[in-house]
Amino acid sequence: MKFRPCIDLHDGKVKQIVGETLNNQLVENFVSEYSSSYYAKLFQKDQLSGGHVIMLGPNNEAAAKEALSAYPGGLQVGGGITASNALQYLEAGASHIIVTSYIFKDGALNWDHLHAIVEAVGKERLVIDLSCKSKDGKWYVVTNQWQQFSDFEVNQQNITELEKYCDEFLVHAVDVEGKQSGIQQSLVRDLALWTTIPTTYAGGARSLEDIRLFEQLCQSKLDLTIGSALSIFGGALPYESALEAFK
Fold it and tell me: Is 172 within 8 Å of 184 (Cβ atoms)?
């Protein structure tokens, strides 16, 4: 189990927001006075690798590339990336490309786009974001800034199929993401059972107790992202304590 850091970008600034509110009365938990490269260098200093830089909407490309170049090979990047623009982010220093909406188009998995992005960057440098919400007792990928349900169910069969095309999964539990309300326990259990490649869970972690609970639920099989709760993002959980908890 690893601690995966995050750098969320909105309008060129490092922020922590409630993701579901991007298109509807934006809720900002935190807006940093520091640049994206400040956080990238911090994570590099603390030897945290495999974190994600997420571009939430337009006007974030420069800030994303600034972070990637500050920590070459140490960060993944996602948000509006397609087969046609992915290489520029790898050249800027990204270890992996993260995709969601590009491959989940019009509410369904677009196989042509999936094959195109694999062709562009290679399976070994691709992360598929399966950010999902619960509906009728099942998990479904949501796209378009988490506003639209797709028909793609996150389950054992579909996980196994997608593992053929990517190196890792990133999964935001959208129902709790950014709300510091605790982790989505059933999703954590499911992902630990279903996945066989590195998988990062993000959403709701707020305390050392949550970190311990997460470790128990997934039996250390998954990695964890903590965002809004961290002191470096205005939260109550000391960043240094979180680092220590993963040693």
Answer: no
